[in-house]
Task: structure prediction
Amino acid sequence: MHIMYFTEQPMATYPADKGLEFGATALMFSNSHFDPVSGSRLYNEYIEQYKLAEAVGFDGIMLNEHHNAPFCMQAKANVFASILAAITERVKIVILGNPLPLAENPVRIAEELAMIDMISKGRLVSGFVRGGGQEQLATGVNPAYNRERFEEAHDLIIRTWTQAGPFRFEGAHYQHRVVNPWAVPLQKPHPRVWIPGVISKETVVWAARQGYPYIALNTTVEQTNKIWELYDQTAEEAGFKGGPEYHGYLKQVHVAETEEKALENARQFTWMQGEFTGLAHPVWSTPAGYSSPENRRGFVEFSTGRGSSPRRRPSFDEQIQNNMIIAGTPKTVTAKLRQVMEQTRPGIMSLWANDGAVSHADSMTCIRLFGEEVLPALRETAKELDLKSPFEANTPVSIHYGPNAPKQAVAAE
Amino acid sequence: MAEPVAWSQTQVDLGGLPVRLNRAGKGPPLLVLHHDTGTPERLALYDALAHRFDVMVPQHPGYGHSERPQWMRSARDLAVLYRWLLTALDQPRATLLGLGFGGWIAAEMASMAPADAAKLVLVGPMGIKPAEGFILDQALVSHIDYARAGFHDQKAFEAIYGADPSTDQLVEWDLCREMCFRIAWKPYMYSQTLPHLLGGVQSPTTIVWGAEDKVVPPSTAQQWLKAMPKAKLETVAGCGHCVDMEKPAALAAFI
Result:
């Protein structure tokens, strides 16, 4: 099993009352509430936490990016990936992911990722996402072409990584006279691609057709297993067998020295009214054309208060009860995670360990306890349950390559 | 009171793309180009016009429940399709009544065939970048709030859509919104070249503006007059963007 550390890189130092007053903490919530002094402190604390995560034995560090919102300070995943490439030595740098439709020039993304892969000596896992609805508005990108841009940018990046340049690219959304970036990735045939997601069936099917592992982001056990069913069925149609090495799962899990402390800190997972991406405005989070046509009715009903949010979360207590949020001492957390692993059988596990206003000291304690007590137990469980990661199972990087495709050019020492 | 108007509904085939057309009345031909929020099937204005004109109200391809041309990328594409429609109906000289977003399409049509339209009536038209303020960005507001912003008198909105519009209506507005994004996302709801292409239009032109328009700033009328110096400006007091729905009698008098 591949176990990663994750934090949204929250900025809890903004005035929460202003968010409530405004009614949203995204897109149009004024950045006059952003405090660069605490921003500077927090960025550097997150770097300390990532270093500790490597030191205590996590296999990977998962990064993401969002825009115009305090729930995630990371506005460019490739910036942190570059930092980690230089300051860590062993962990996989797992970007989940670069929001492709936001890019006006995907070749630049391919180039940046190639640099990160070389600097990290082949430790990059390059996930791709569509970006949230608000992100399309924040960057001025047309939400109606979101999925088309995602797929086209993906195809262009993979070609840029695998086909000798120069070549010309004439797509519907991207046109390039000369694709020939000097830098190409160290890993061959190309870095692994994992696809994270929440509710879009289209993305699950697309990932399975490509042979890319799918990472279910904070979904319920029931939703997760439905996703695997769809994934494995699509995989079978595409000609390969799914299973744990293609299944990843992100869980909110906080460890502390005492049950009380852990529960108190875990409440921070619901810090912005429990909305996954902050207190959102329904119209901004789902612009017309962004979502699947089959969800259109549900979203317009939600946007006028007639329906409940498709992303709604139950109360904190309920989430603790049904293991949506796991919190406690290492012993409690290990037992509960075992339960979840038995129920969902992922080969990739991402632990979203600290959120909201959890202090730097408590975050460091949490990471240390994970390393000392939880991770060794999880590895035992994974062995027992035969949950292999894509690395352990030596799966091909995509449907286009067999298991014996070249894996990595050798990095200079 | 005049007798009730009998409307027919047909599909006109434009190279495989079905365009839905409501038609009624006798007289000189008049093509109505509806707003970015689609159009109700019937409006008092349409009925009033049908007593004097052969009124044609197509539903824009891709709007409401009409089939979406996946290839379409600009308001100018719509204008070309509508010139094609008029040719197919053998009515190339029809008067063009463009409502808001439809005004942009009508202006594009006129720029392509500067002497063809018998008359041009543009009502709170989009299509030119306002010198002051902006065209209201529907991407940031709910479907109901955007539709309501078209009305100065909210009672007029409620008389047409109801105080609490149906979910079917919301779905229709969302489809319209998606099509607007597909063809006019950036720059939003205007063309940078249109003002330079209108100088040759010979059709008599009337620009109509609701004095309380919150969707397209009324001061934008001055830019239209600059682009079309022979055009006449009529301002409707106490009226918002949707003059057609809020003050239909006043608008009918200008046509």
